[in-house]
Inverse folding.
């Protein structure tokens, strides 16, 4: 299975976020966020400022953590032989 990039993971997250916030809030608070790297199941994102970071932390941290966690979990394929 091909590893996903930070950008792919973040884009998947944004699809879920879009369903949970108003279009205006999405444009204001989520459009400016940039995925930076994905390493050892940790997605690093970049925000424009300290104020921006604090506002997100206060209003959207639960949603952000939930969608990132959900998108980082690898769905393991398995099979059974008898």
């Amino acid at each position: 299975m091909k590893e996903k990039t930070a950008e792919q993971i973040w884009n998947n997250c944004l699809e879920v976020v879009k369903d949970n916030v108003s279009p205006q809030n999405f444009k204001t608070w989520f459009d400016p966020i940039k995925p930076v790297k994905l390493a050892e199941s940790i997605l690093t994102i970049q925000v424009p400022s300290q104020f921006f970071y604090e506002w997100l932390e206060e209003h959207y941290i639960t949603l952000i953590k939930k969608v990132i966690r959900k998108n980082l979990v690898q769905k393991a394929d398995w099979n059974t032989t008898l």
